[in-house]
Every structure is written in structure tokens, then in C-alpha cells.
Design brief:
By secondary structure, the protein is an alpha/beta fold. Helices cover about 40% and strands about 20% of the residues. It starts with 5 loop residues before the first helix and ends with a strand. The radius of gyration is 22 Å and the shape is globular. The strands form two sheets. A six-stranded parallel sheet has the order 3-2-1-4-5-6, with helices on both faces. The protein has two domains: about 180 residues, MOFRL domain (glycerate kinase, domain 1, 3-Layer(aba) Sandwich); about 220 residues, 3-Layer(aba) Sandwich (Rossmann fold). Helix 12 links the parallel strand 7 and strand 8.
Length: about 425
């Protein structure tokens, strides 16, 4: 293979990302999983960054009239005919998050065994559908949620806490719908694709405990408001045993996963003439450490000791974490990109993209970033040493100055982080 020009590499990186996102689009992945219509009513509820697009696809394919409410992130809504779409805040819930949760819970009340609830769940649902447990205010939940986001806790740890202080998560939505049948269609954004973790499992029996939630808060040094402390210390507030949540009336279907998207990107990479190695669809941990692990694999391949030979593409997914100590802007993919560039130290022939498949890295307007062999050198010419930006958690500022942000806008799906490294 002749050495490709840089613009060709950039185009290929974007092609890989686009292929991953396309594989998880609701109009592609949802229709095959639709259940049979019920004798009674069909109620549609849901939460997540993909929920509005999922609702629109369902309306287009469902043979009878539906009703219900779903909540999605601001800017991620699409028009639906009969299903109400509410937009709310992410990653920290707001008043609309609580209003939407109350409407969703109300929508599944007073149903019969002849009725069907279709629950559309995707990543982001935990903050978008937020109903505090009795005695806890929205402000108190916001405080704890923000602290968890900055702490470096994993998504499963964060959602363990969220379930224990919620009136709708951890299976409570499905319990409210009984005796109607509940079918939950899920687009997974969590490592391992556990339905109980995706959006904190509103229709999945909660097996976590109050003690586990308290241990997580202690582990990360998070001080909680008195209302939440009282709730977690209340002996009567034991883990909800969802006796009605059983395969007899409730079932879950994973309609899109990180692995499916990585495989779609692999097909695009092979079509372009590269060998492709999928590292994993479920990488977790500190963004900097994950970057170091990727560079170790890159170095092994360059030395002829890796699982694949160059020219090749490495793909990975999952959800990294960032312990935020600075006041800069950016998400975990920008953090990964800075760490990757620093570890590569300008090595020739290595290019990378790190993006969130929902099109939003953290709270910014970019999906992620691009890394080139000359990233460090160009930044130094601008007076921007990467070490300074990493200390301030300012990945957005670092790559914005280089014009190496990837901006897609909301993709209306979410299978979490996507990383591609091309070695020529």
C-alpha cells in the first residue's frame, strides 16, 4: 500500500466513526425487535439521547395508535405524531428532567394485563429522567450527580447510587406498570451491556443495595446532603425487591451495542485495505491510563510484536473516566486525545480519532478530537504545551486551537466512546 496523504487518513478516520454511528441508528436497529401489538393499549415511554429518534422509528412501524412520553437531551428531539417529546438537561438533571419523569410514571399507571408498555432506553437516561426518592429534593440530587461526574467513578458505580435515591430507576418504572406487559428496547452505552446499568435500569430489578451506594460515596470522598444521608441510613429503605419484574411480563432486548458498531467500523477499515484489530468494546478506567495502554499496543505493533501488522487500524469502545481537578473545558475523549498525543511523542505514521457516538464529548459542542503525528509540535508553536492543558482538564481548548475538534452535532444515538488508531 502506498503511504496515504494526511487528508486521506482524516477522511478514513471519519468514515470509521460514521460507520459506527450508522450501525446504531434507531431506524436501522429498532424495527427487527418490535413486539407483537397487544389486545389493549400501547403506551410508549423512554429516556436517553436516542429516545426521540427511537420513538419516531416506532411510530413509523407500529400498526396501531400509540400514546406516551419520552425525554431526550436538549437539541436531540425529533418530531413525533402521538408520542410527546420532552427535552431536558444532561449530564446534570434539571426541572424538565423531573417533570418528564413524573409524566412517564403517570403514563404507565392504571394499565391492565391486555396493555403493553414499550420502554425506549438509551444512554443519558439517568439524568434525563430524574425523579428523586421521597424526601430528597432535585437540588440535592443535582449536587450528588455533579460530584459523581467529577470524581472519576465508573458508570456502574454512579448508577448504583442513582438507583438508590430515585423513585423511578432500578425497576420502579416497570413495577408501576404492572400488570401490563413491558418490553424494553435498549441501545447500550455501558461496558458489558448490562440492562440494569443502562440509564440506571428503570425496568430492570435492582440488585444493588443501600450499603453499596454508601460505600461508593465514601470511596470517592463525596459529601452528600442530609436528605440523601437520611435516605441511605434509613433501615426501612431496603433494596426494592421487584416481585412483579419477571420474564413472564417484562423482557429486555438489546437492539444496538458498542460491539456491533465496532464491527461496522471494522468492515469499513478492511474495505479501505487495512488490517483491523478490535481491542475491546468495554474499556473502562482513567482516560490517561487507557491512552497509555493503547500506546503500548501501538509500540508493540511497530516493533513487529503485536496482534496485527501494519498498515492497520486499532478500534476500541467503552467508557473512560476523568478525575476533574482543573477548570478547563472538554470531555473524556479530549482527555484521551491529549494523553495519547503526549505518550506517542510525535511518532511517525500514527493517527487517531476519539469521539463519543452521541456527538457530544462531555458538555461541549464537539464529538471528540483528532490526533496527528505533529499534534504536539503544532501546539508548541502556538505556545500550548500539552502538560499545561492536561493539568487544567482543557482538552477542548487544546484541540480547538489546533482546529482538530470533530464536530458532528447530535447523532441521536449513543453506544458510547469510539476510538480508532491508524498505523501506516
Amino acid at each position: 500500500m502506498n503511504a496515504p496523504r494526511t487528508n486521506e487518513i482524516t477522511d478514513l478516520l471519519r468514515t470509521l466513526f460514521d460507520a459506527a454511528v450508522a450501525a446504531a441508528q434507531p431506524d436501522v436497529c429498532l424495527p427487527p425487535f418490535l413486539p407483537e401489538p397487544p389486545k389493549g393499549r400501547t403506551v410508549v415511554v423512554g429516556a436517553g439521547k436516542a429516545s426521540a429518534a427511537m420513538a419516531r422509528t416506532l411510530e413509523r412501524h407500529w400498526p396501531t395508535k400509540v400514546q406516551g412520553t419520552v425525554v431526550t437531551r436538549y437539541g436531540h428531539a425529533v418530531n413525533c405524531t402521538d408520542i410527546e417529546i420532552i427535552e431536558a438537561a444532561h449530564p446534570v438533571p434539571d426541572e424538565n428532567s423531573e417533570r418528564a419523569a413524573r409524566k412517564i410514571l403517570q403514563a404507565v399507571q392504571n394499565l391492565t394485563k391486555d396493555d403493553l408498555v414499550i420502554c425506549l432506553i438509551s444512554g443519558g437516561g439517568s439524568s434525563l429522567m430524574c425523579l428523586p426518592a421521597e424526601g430528597i429534593s432535585l437540588a440535592d440530587k443535582q449536587q450528588v450527580n455533579l460530584a459523581l461526574l467529577k470524581s472519576g467513578a465508573s458508570i456502574s458505580e454512579m448508577n448504583c447510587v442513582r438507583k438508590q435515591v430515585s423513585a423511578i430507576k432500578g425497576g420502579k418504572l416497570a413495577r408501576a406498570a404492572y400488570p401490563a406487559s413491558v418490553v424494553t428496547l435498549l441501545i447500550s452505552d455501558v461496558p458489558g451491556d448490562d440492562p440494569a446499568t443502562i440509564a440506571s435500569g428503570p425496568t430492570v430489578a435492582n440488585t444493588s443495595t443501600l450499603s453499596e451506594a454508601k460505600e461508593i460515596l465514601i470511596r470517592y470522598g463525596i459529601e452528600v446532603p442530609q436528605s440523601i444521608q437520611n435516605h441511605l441510613n434509613n433501615a426501612a429503605e431496603q433494596t426494592l425487591q421487584n416481585s412483579h419484574i419477571s420474564p413472564l411480563f417484562s423482557r429486555n432486548a438489546l437492539i444496538a451495542t458498542p460491539q456491533i458498531s465496532l464491527e461496522a467500523a471494522a468492515v469499513a477499515g478492511k474495505k479501505a485495505g487495512y488490517r483491523v484489530h478490535i481491542i475491546s468494546d468495554r474499556l473502562e478506567g482513567d482516560s490517561g491510563q487507557v491512552a497509555r495502554d493503547h500506546v503500548a499496543l501501538v509500540n508493540a505493533i511497530v516493533a513487529g510484536k503485536g496482534p496485527v501488522t501494519r498498515p492497520c487500524i486499532l478500534l476500541s469502545g467503552g467508557e473512560t473516566t476523568v478525575h476533574v481537578t482543573g477548570k478547563g473545558r472538554g470531555g473524556r475523549n479530549a482527555e484521551f486525545g491529549m494523553a495519547l498525543a503526549a505518550e506517542l511523542e510525535g511518532a511517525a505514521g500514527i493517527y487517531a480519532l476519539a469521539c463519543d457516538t452521541d456527538g457530544i464529548d462531555g458538555t461541549e459542542d464537539n464529538a471528540g478530537v483528532l490526533v496527528y503525528p505533529d499534534t504536539l509540535k503544532r501546539a508548541i508553536r502556538l505556545g500550548n504545551p500539552v502538560s499545561d492543558y492536561r493539568k487544567n482538564n482543557d482538552g477542548y481548548g487544546y484541540f480547538q486551537a489546533l482546529d482538530d475538534l470533530v464536530v458532528t452535532g447530535p447523532t441521536r444515538t449513543n453506544v458510547n466512546d469510539f476510538r480508532a488508531i491508524i498505523i501506516v
